[in-house]
Amino acid sequence: MRLTTAALPFLSSAAALRSSSNGESAQPAIVPKRVAIIGAGAAGSSAAYHLAQFAQDSGIPLQIDVFERNWHIGGRSTTINPWFDPDQAIELGASIFVDVNHILVNATKAFNLSTNNRENLLANIPEVGIWNGKELVFTMNEGGWWDLAKLFWRYGYAPVKANKLMRETVDKFLQMYERPHFPWRSLSDVVQLVGLTEATGLTGEQYMQNKGIAPKFANEIVQASTRVNYASNLGTIHGVEAMVCLATNGAMSIAGGNWRIFEHMLSSSDYISTHLNHTIAQISKQADGTYNLTSIAGRVSSFDEVILAAPLQFSNLVIDPAPEHTPDEIPYVKLHVTHFTTPHKLDPLAFGLEADKPVPEYVLTTLQVDEDYGSKPNVGRAGFFSISIVSSGVNVHASKPRSEYIYKIFSPKRIDYQFLSRVLGLQVSKEEAEKGDVDGTISWINHWDVHSYPYEYPRVTFDEIKLDEGLWYTSAIESFISTMETSALSGKNVAQLIVNEWNKQAGESSNGEDMKIEANWDSNPWNNAQKPIKDDL
């Protein structure tokens, strides 16, 4: 067990040698393991949550410090408030999770969180339409018999084959949650062991073609899904991620924002302290194997283990000396997300419809048959990846309060007044397109540019999870599957690997006996009070 200078202020008097009441020789108290987690998104929150659980199950005392450079928990899972109304919380980034996302679903139940079960906001109009820049090639409502008939009429048995392939792919992936595969020390190895290397090594187009799925269905339905979820065409995204886009059964979100799952994870244990607005500038490995973390304010803290729970390439971190394994710098999508509010529906004429035909609530997009996939990718003549009505509300700031729709657009570039004027069929000024006008066509608008996820190009090897002794990396999973759930899974996996190593060290230190560390929880200083979430300004 390591004892570092930085840990000394946290130890109670029980850490000193003292005589017992019966006069026996004094015994040193066990020093808690100290773990730093950099990033309070899905991966970091899950790592802290599961590490606290696994360590307690093994009788290992510890202190976990989570450092987040932003003011909020959740990373890319955060919300925005139209009209700056706190009662209106709209997902800014990751919007939903699904039934097979076991970690998020179980956490939702454990924390007794309410979910949003979204119903159509507009009656008697299609729910989903797929636009190729010229026409809506397919529309559907809520999957009733008429939608099924239209699917079979246009695509034959391709939807059935694709659904079967999706289920087979997801079943293979779910093996990564269970023994003998979990926890996995190598992502490359476990992907091969569960039988997914073929799918990750091919594009979605190649993978589906090899499985006999008709190109028309792949290029229209599946590609619309890969574009809305990953801003990627089917010829550039690997096969596993393409299948993930089809796994939508039981879609749900948390009332008030999905970030609340991660907030509850970080508040679940007395042994977790979360430091917001706290940027770590440098990680320095010491001669004794511990790590010193230096904040941009110059504060230095010492830890036994460090979990880097954010993409290294965006962290501006200096790691000294360089770790044994340095993650690849991989290309990320620069996505433009626009939210705006208006009392108006989309203009049918802008989507090739007759004036009296309604535009679907969700407009997804695909390429026309003569358009290339591109590598970054090509957004095509559609000009955007998706536009949808995500909610509705009352604009109380208008001179006369009015009900309005809340729209969300994913696009490869910033949305301007010309685009908004075209899709609404109304004149939108430059000022409205930038700032909104409470009484105007656009009453409120928000532009957000984000490195949302990697370009999921085909590959069969992935970054290392363990960068060095005591230094771990959760974002290795990003180029395999990038979702809230897989980030949470990566955090859980790292947590189990760390505790397994601690148990192994404890066994070796006891002359080979298989034993666990027995903690004196009564003397643990962190057992006496709930650790607050700290806002370090």
TrEMBL record:
Record-level GO BP terms: prenylated protein catabolic process; prenylcysteine catabolic process
Domain Prenylcysteine lyase: 144-507
Record key words, sorted: FAD, Flavoprotein, Glycoprotein, Oxidoreductase, Signal
GO MF terms, alphabetically ordered: prenylcysteine oxidase activity
Polar residues: bias regions: 521-530
Leader sequence residues: 1-16
Entry superkingdom: Eukaryota
Cofactor: FAD
Segments for region (Disordered): 507-537
Family: Belongs to the prenylcysteine oxidase family.
The protein, known as: Prenylcysteine oxidase
Originating organism: Paraphaeosphaeria minitans
Organism ancestry: Eukaryota, Fungi, Dikarya, Ascomycota, Pezizomycotina
